[in-house]
Amino acid sequence: MQPGREGEQSPRPASYPRRTISRLHSRHIFHAYLFIAPVVLLFGLFRVLPSVQTLLFSFYKVELLKDRLTFIGLDNFISLFSDEIFQKATVNTLTYVITIVPISAFLGLVLAVLFNAQFALKEFFKAVYFSPMVTSTVAAAMVWWWMYNPQFGIFNVLLRLVGLPGQPWLMSSHMALPSIIIFSVWKNLGYNMIIYLAGLQAIPQQFYEAATIDGAGPVMRFRHVTIPLLAPTTTFILIYDTILALQVFDQVFVLTGGGPANSTNVVVLDLYRQAFERYNFGYAAAEAMVLFLFILAVTILQYYYSRRYEVAY
Amino acid sequence: MRRASWFAVVLTVLFLTPAVVLAGAAKTITLWYPAGDITAGAAHFADKNLFSEFEKKYNIKVEAVALDYDTMQQKIFAAAAGKNVADVLFVDSSWLPGFLKEEMLEPVADAKAKAWLSAVSPEIVELSDYGKGRMWGYPQYGIDVYGLTWNKTQFKDAGLDPEKPPKTWDEFREYAKKLTKTEGGNITRVGYAIRHVGHPHGVVHKHFWAIYGTGGALIDDPNRLRGGKALIDTPHTKAALKLILDMLDVDKSTSLNFPDPRAAFLKGIASMQISETVSIKARQPKEAPDLKWGMALPPVEKAGDKPVTLLGAWLYSVPKQAKNKAQAWQLIEWLNSQEKDFELCKQYDASPRYKANWEKEPFKSDPYDQGLKQMYPYGKKLPINLGLNGIMDAMGGAIQKVWHHEATIDAALAEAQRQADKAIADAAK
After folding, report:
1. Which of A142, A179, B195, B340 could form a disulfide with B206 if both were Cys (CB 3.0 to 4.6 A apart)?
2. Is B104's CB within 8 Å of A65's CB?
3. Interface pTM, i.e. ipTM
4. Domain identity same for A93 and A238
5. A264 interfaces chain B, CB cutoff of 8 Å
6. What span, in angstroms and rounded, lies between the C-alpha atoms of A231 and A225?
7. Architecture in CATH for domain B7-141+313-376
């Protein structure tokens, strides 16, 4: 009996159908690769290749305009670790990350819990909180620069209206980084809110019903049902926000340029300066590699640490 | 056969026409300059007729393109690396060390440089000559000289002579205290506005007069391209920083809340400031038409000291990667000829560069131009060292740290000295 529809007789030899299936399978795989080829090619060209090139450059003195590469081994890295400006940039970046990640995540969760309830104009307010996310960071930062102006900015106008003294904000070494953090929290809040909202809405209701039956009040239900079941979402948000925060650049460049007195200088801004103002491409590449390794280490640590809190439902 | 001959003639005409048209078509060269009011010397590039005479004479079309100042240096570098840079660059002379480190610029031909240096005024020679007659471009007309500008009306209201600016640091502090106004404990007008935010280089430019005025400097040999030693951690620089720190903390005649000295001066919320006088001259008619202002050399540490101020200029230069170098030099030489210097300076109300043009009206009797001429002999340009960017970053960072009370003067300057020496050593490798 030959394979095929019942009653049909294949005129071909018995081995052919197996080869046909194998050929069809190969063509199927080939088509699949063909469809993903453009993306893979572009990814390779614009992500992988530059990353490999950066890794290579970090071991060289790079003189682009002279088309010259001089191998210097680990000199760039040794110089980097004794660079006081890079050390300060690292401290600033870590301060930024440690502050903004938990604050953004916490406020995002609070908003998500609020928006999980039903109330009038809910969708409108959701859009209002999400809108900073879709605004260009540079454009928003330029507006905030004016809002932070010590003489004419709206923040100081409001402070003076309630009888409080105006603040120097971006003009002060002590306040410039917190001012940037406030902007960044405002900018990213909507995204965390949406992700948490999706996580909340994925929690099956029967857990809450069971907890209610067992006598748990709203706070206990939130603590013992919502928080643990949001663990995967929280993991994602913490990792994602940490990666983004470690690479902060746009708002710092626009709001303060890394000043005053390097108080807001961050690693990515420092490597940008090394590359495009001092033309030290090899040194900048070394900074980029150190940042990459750091982000990788933090991500792996966060991922393994958070796995113990994962739950399945 | 006849048809075939006609067909061949038509084909030949069609084939040759584009070549003939292209041969007669004008070549186009590009010129990049900074957008906005970064330098008064760039304002004329927006004039569509600026190059019409040159274009007619040489059959070369000039395309002037404005670039954002903050990213201009990076764009130039990236374009040069991609071998797609403009033919003429109008660049800040403080960027020169970075460009020279990458061997990016064509030097001016020796004969042309010699002719230029013998025909222009001494301050233009100072800005043009980078050692042994070597030139990397032609400085703009209407060069930048940093001077003290003061509000004459506010001087009079404070009981000060509006025609007499402070000459010494003691007078400077006294005047600033008298001119400062406070309301409800907040300073509403500073006697002297300081630049303390933004790019560190800008901070150093605005404080150059104090550092050099005490006998200090940024580096031991200002004309040495590679190597050398920074001179940041010295008693001279300490004195310069202490002056402003005392005005901040002791006199309370200045404040960190007025970050843009020129804007504050033009708005009337700063009575004195020190920056490029040409910028005030260009902006005052539009932004403060009623402002009566004076201009003089910055004050000296004590009576009898020689004043020092910063001379700066933007340069017309040609990158090595330019595709039309011959035409680019043609444009630059036409723009910087004696005739064009006179014509354009008269048209755009700028100070000329040629000695002969200074003898002609209106420059001979214009009070602003003659005031500048008095100041020019005291001007110095920035050093040419390849590590200049690092030196300026370090010095600017130190100034900011001290005025923001992040560090003591000694600690900030010691750190800046280390960073500057490292920058010099790295650039020399």
Report:
1. B195
2. yes
3. 0.75
4. yes
5. no
6. 10
7. 3-Layer(aba) Sandwich (3.40)
Fold of the domain built from segment(s) B144-312+383-428: D-Maltodextrin-Binding Protein; domain 2 (3.40.190)
A261 to B397: CB separation less than 8 angstroms, yes or no? yes
Residue B69 pLDDT grade (very low, low, confident, very high; cuts 50, 70, 90): confident
Task: Please name the helix (run of DSSP H) or strand (run of DSSP E) that holds residue B241, with its range, or none.
Answer: helix B235-246
Dist CA B71 CA A215 (whole Å): 63
CA B206 and chain centroid, separation: 12
A271 contacts on B by Cβ (under 8 Å): none
The verdict on a CB contact (< 8 Å) between A150 and B401 is no
Residue B73 to residue A256, Cβ atoms within 8 A: no
Q: What is the pLDDT of residue A2?
A: 42
- Report pLDDT digits (tens) over B87-128: 999 998 888 888 988 889 999 999 999 999 999 999 999 999
- Of A79, A84, A171, Cβ closest to residue B256: A171
- A-chain residues near B74 (CB < 8 A): 276-277
Residues A134 and A195 in one domain: yes
Domain hosting A129: range is: 76-307
Domain ranges of chain B: 7-141+313-376, 144-312+383-428
CATH of the domain at A80: 1.10.3720.10
C-alpha dist (Å) from residue A290 to A81, A93, A107, A283, A287 = 10, 13, 31, 11, 5
| Cβ count within 10 A of residue B93 | 24
Residue A257 in any domain: the answer is: yes
Interface of B with A in 272-331 (CB under 8 A): 321
Cis previous bond, B34, omega within 30: no
> Which of B102, B186, B196 lies closest to A260 in CB terms?
B196
A64, B186: Cβ pair inside 8 Å? Answer: no
